[in-house]
Design a protein that fits this description.
Length: 370
């Protein structure tokens, strides 16, 4: 993965997040209701942001970008299938971005279904992919691990670069639903770059739809459709106001987070999200792909499709003592915690707070607009 951090920053960042989440700061008020989460979010960002001033200075010294909000020198490339833009395919537009790019570039993709597979390489920074709306601009392909050899290489769209943003566009892997056979993983989007953000997007797939692989990521107002392990990997991500739409599969899991050790600072946090779908109440909130897997759902509404036990240890009881799984003020028929695994938590205010703001993903360093 592209590392924009100096080793000093990585060390500091590891030390400040041990397995048990620490309270953010006593100055930050914890919202009591779901409505207040929305209202207070910006205040939280400011409060938590102050804590990260030291990170910010270190990151800038390490050579990352001075002013991410600056549009000076921005280039706009238009993709249109009918030929009225600069290019007819998304790949041509990405190919036109010079290697080692650090200038802001927006690739606008007009309405259409683009049958392509794209990889944004590590060295092409600061690209924004802007669709005309997630219902009208779609990039799609069809490949499962059985064909490409690995899950990683199945992605319709793969991001290895830092500072990548996508808005109002959908990504699909149209592989058929898994039928119990091997190698049916089929990724719609992989994000392996640090500081990647997705606003108003949609990801469509079945097994392994969203490979939230590595780095700090922000997903907002985004739809994720899938069945088995459909958000998975070792990223550190905040999902805000997102919908997770479950396709019936006779089981499955919303997440498979892969945090590997106590010193690793990753995990998924879902705030103010909605889990929808139909079928039996057999879907896990998470399965422990990594022994220190970390997943929190806060203020999230669950349809009646959640396995009452909630969480699965991936067949390894030792993981029950090392994972960190929790709910905070969730609601809806699938939220009932009466029969949840004894090793999962209803979080206290102080435990939940660090997971519920942009501070969780060091947003003050890089999130430039909502
Ligand atoms: C783009 O996404 C935002 C959410 O991030 C949404 O409010 C807006 O309506 C979308 N615009 C279009 C054209 O789809």
């Amino acid at each position: 993965m592209a590392r924009v951090w100096s080793s000093v920053v990585v060390l500091v960042s590891c030390l400040s997040f041990v397995s048990v989440p620490q309270p953010v700061s006593s100055a930050v008020n914890i919202p009591a209701t779901r409505d207040e989460v929305v209202a207070s979010f910006q205040t939280w960002v400011e409060g938590v942001g102050a804590k990260h001033a030291a990170f910010e200075i270190a990151a800038r010294t390490a050579g990352s970008i001075d002013d991410l909000s600056s549009k000076v020198g921005e280039t706009v490339i238009v993709v249109d299938q009918s030929g009225t833009g600069n290019y007819k395919t998304i790949n041509e537009a990405f190919n036109a971005v010079p290697l080692h790019n650090k200038n802001p570039i927006t690739i606008k993709v007009n309405a259409g279904t683009y049958n392509e597979r794209v990889v944004v390489p590590k060295s092409k920074w600061r690209i924004t992919l802007q669709g005309a709306g997630r219902d009208v601009t779609k990039i799609t392909s069809k490949s499962a691990a059985g064909e490409t050899g690995t899950t990683y290489t199945t992605s319709t769209f793969g991001v290895s670069a830092p500072y990548f943003t996508a808005r109002n566009i959908s990504f699909e892997n149209s592989s058929p639903p898994p039928n119990g056979g091997a190698q049916q993983q089929a990724v719609a989007l992989r994000t392996t770059g640090d500081f990647n953000a997705f606003y108003g997007c949609a990801f469509y797939g079945q097994q392994d739809t969203l490979y939230d692989d590595r780095g700090r990521h922000y997903f907002k107002d985004t739809l994720v459709v899938g069945s088995v392990d459909f958000i998975f990997g070792d990223g550190k991500s905040l999902y805000k106001n997102c919908e997770l739409r479950v396709l019936p599969s006779g089981g499955g899991s919303l997440t498979a987070q892969k945090r590997l050790s106590l010193s690793e600072d990753t995990g998924y946090s879902f705030v103010n999200c909605k889990v929808t779908g139909s079928g039996p109440a057999t879907v896990y909130l998470g399965r422990a792909w990594g022994p220190y897997s970390r997943v929190v759902f806060a203020f999230t509404e669950f349809a009646n499709i959640i396995n009452p036990v909630g969480w699965y240890n991936w067949g390894d009881a030792a993981r029950e003592g090392t994972v960190f799984y929790g709910q905070y003020k969730c609601f809806g028929p699938g939220a009932n915690q009466a029969n949840r695994a004894s090793w999962s938590h209803e979080l206290t205010d102080a435990q939940a707070a660090p997971f519920m703001s942009l501070g969780y993903i060091d947003g003050s360093l890089w999130v430039t607009g909502e």
